[in-house]
Amino acid sequence: MQTLHELATRLKQARRILVLTGAGISAESGIATFRDAQTGLWSRFRPEDLATPAAFQRDPALVWRWYAWRREQIAQAQPNAAHIALAELARRTSLTLVTQNVDDLHQRAGSTGVIALHGAIARTVCSVTGREISPVWLAANPGEPPRSPHHDRGLARPGVVWFGEELPAEALTAAQAAARGCDVVLAIGTSALVYPAAGLPALAQQHGAWFAEINPQPTPLTSAADLAIVQTAGYAMPAVLDAWENR
Ligand code: OAD
Predict the structure, then answer these.
(1) What pTM value is reported for the model?
(2) How far apart are CA 222 and CA 230, in angstroms?
(3) Which atom of ligand 1 is least distant from the CA of 118?
(4) Of all protein residues, whose CA lies closest to atom 18 belonging to ligand 1?
(5) How far is Cα 192 from Cα 34, in angstroms, rounded to an integer?
(6) Model pLDDT, residue 37
(7) Segments in the chain below pLDDT 50
(8) Of the candidates 90, 116, 103, 98, which has an alpha carbon nearest to the alpha carbon of residue 34?
(9) Which of 115, 122, 212, 245 could form a disulfide with 98 if both were Cys (CB 3.0 to 4.6 A apart)?
(10) What is the pLDDT of residue 2?
(11) Ligand 1, atom 30: nearest CA belongs to which residue?
């Protein structure tokens, strides 16, 4: 409990906070993470079959159906106590929320201005031009996947970032600026294995920020953290908000 109070104190004293979230923050909403043993998606599926441009070229239907299955699960999930506590916290302080998650649970919990580094699973784009394809057009043009309305050789594809692809430049630039400008950085529920997202806490530290991590398991960043809270996000974040309110 003391560590949660320490985090609340640091957050309250901070002028600018950066929070980086990963799949772990949505785990308690029932959405599988990627790398947890047994339950993680990458323990059951191979990323090179499903989450690369080459995989989509090889078997677009397989990739399309896998994302449709995940989109369905996400649509049925609800934000959990951690998403809600973060949105509450942002109403009390200057907080930039950067997520690697492609679900929309932060936004549905009430967070605004979320920087989504890996895109959004609810979006569909043209595989050639990257232009958005509207849900209305998709409903009228079924297919697995349908051809893109924006380019002769294009297909509809999920609006997420795959391995080997660049992150959206604007989002990355904004996240890195927030890292350079914050005085507290908090990483929640990320294995910190995928760059450039995983580099944000170190970037913030290089610019003088204090760094805390919330994760039930150690990560490559844990030893560099000023405070490691070895709890789930759904337990820790409401407790931090509570400590913020009552200290
Ligand atoms: P990972 O699946 O790699 O890591 C999830 C982390 O969440 C692990 O460190 C777990 O210990 C932790 N965790 C599990 N349950 C938790 C809970 N209830 N509360 C807090 N933490 C919990 O997910 P990411 O780090 O998000 O990329 O993965 C990064 C990227 O790799 C993803 O965005 C995705 C994936 O391949 C793309 O799709 C481009």
Answers:
(1) 0.97
(2) 10
(3) 39
(4) 232
(5) 12
(6) 84
(7) none
(8) 103
(9) 115
(10) 86
(11) 194
